Amino acid sequence: MAATAVHQLAQCITCHAWSPDQTMVAICPNSNEVHIYKSSPDKWEQVHVLQKHDQIISGIDWSTGSNKIVTVSHDRNSYVWNQEASEWVPTLVILRLNRAALCVQWSPKENKFAVGSGAKTVCICYYEQENNWWVSKLIRKRHNSSVTGVAWHPDNILLATTSTDGKCRIFSTFIKGVDSRDAGTTSSSELKFGEQIVQLDLSFSWAFGVRWSPSGNTLAYVGHNSMIYFVDDVGPSPSAQSVAFSDLPLRDVLFVSERMVIGVGFDCSPMVFTADERGIWNFVKLLDQRKLVPSSANYGSQLSGAFGKLYGQSKHISNDTVEPSRSRAGVHSNLITSILPLKVVGGAVKRFSTSGLDGKVVVWDLENQSEFSL
């Protein structure tokens, strides 16, 4: 069992984020508020409630360098929160959206953040020093449906997105005056803002969580068809693989190292995927060992396996090995909505956290497990 701490902070949590020193956690309890908890020796104490949005908050991110919190909501707005003395002061970001904002993430250098929306639009927001406000540039007419996930490449220029049109796309977000030409790779820094590098048509269903590996050489994203996709050599001729599994679909992913990924979602337990010496990705195990009891009814497993094989038959490499169906009664008892790294040593994640619709924030420790030494 890898879970080291379980915190019941609400009845339901849509997303969460940690402070730079990881002594505080901000959660969105499926409402228009952000609740910030501070750790104490025997419990977590609520110290702040951020109230400004009119509808459910769908995304939150806490910058590690500047200690700023960014939130987005179904009310189509975004706020950047700055801590002044003991208070958090919000600054409105004009997104110019006509549909809900769905996800948000700070760039690695924290001079920009990206917002995905139900308006088929991605907003790249940055601070304009002259006018003392946050402004946005929009990537339009590229997506055919809602943008469900955004992920920054380590070079601070490239941005990957997922959408309910089933596609994953990669764009340049170079902004003159904000980014320098030597900020990213030679190719990415020479591209214009909003220019699409590649469109990946691997999924036959909605696509959700997306993440880059620490080096930026590999991209992983998930589909609502119980499949996860891995892409190497992102560009005109990418190398892609798909892994099908019998369990329920994933919603978010995290690279533990260059050769290991953890996915979370509807199955309520983190799933581990690894790449072998040949670079072939495979499903390894569920982290929550209490969920390894086979279900008495295996019809669902057989049906899921059949669909996994069907979806795996494509021009890219496919691994469609399916496992027996399992009961779902572990640390999390409902959908896991997000996964975040907590402790990184030498580029490898040693501790991470998950939050779910069961209202829990769970901390998972990988340090003492030999199978996570990749």
UniProtKB/TrEMBL annotation:
Q: Please verify whether the record's keywords include Cytoplasm.
A: yes
**SMART domains linked to this entry:** WD40 (SM00320)
Spans of the WD repeats are 50-91, 140-172
> Which InterPro entries does this entry report, sorted A to Z?
ARPC1 (IPR017383), WD40/YVTN_repeat-like_dom_sf (IPR015943), WD40_repeat_dom_sf (IPR036322), WD40_rpt (IPR001680)
Tell whether Oxidoreductase is among the UniProt keywords. Answer: no
Query: Which key words are in the record?
Result: Actin-binding, Cytoplasm, Cytoskeleton, Repeat, WD repeat
Q: Where in the cell is it found?
A: Cytoplasm, Cytoskeleton
GO CC terms, sorted? Arp2/3 protein complex
What Gene Ontology terms describe what this protein does at the molecular function level?
actin filament binding
> SUPFAM superfamilies per the record?
WD40 repeat-like
> Where does the UniProt entry say this protein principally localizes?
cytoplasm
Function recorded in the entry: Functions as component of the Arp2/3 complex which is involved in regulation of actin polymerization and together with an activating nucleation-promoting factor (NPF) mediates the formation of branched actin networks.
* Family named by the database record: Belongs to the WD repeat ARPC1 family.
Description of how the protein assembles with itself and partners: Component of the Arp2/3 complex composed of ARP2, ARP3, ARPC1/p41-ARC, ARPC2/p34-ARC, ARPC3/p21-ARC, ARPC4/p20-ARC and ARPC5/p16-ARC.
- PANTHER family, from UniProt? ACTIN-RELATED PROTEIN 2/3 COMPLEX SUBUNIT 1, ACTIN-RELATED PROTEIN 2_3 COMPLEX SUBUNIT
Q: What is this protein called?
A: Actin-related protein 2/3 complex subunit
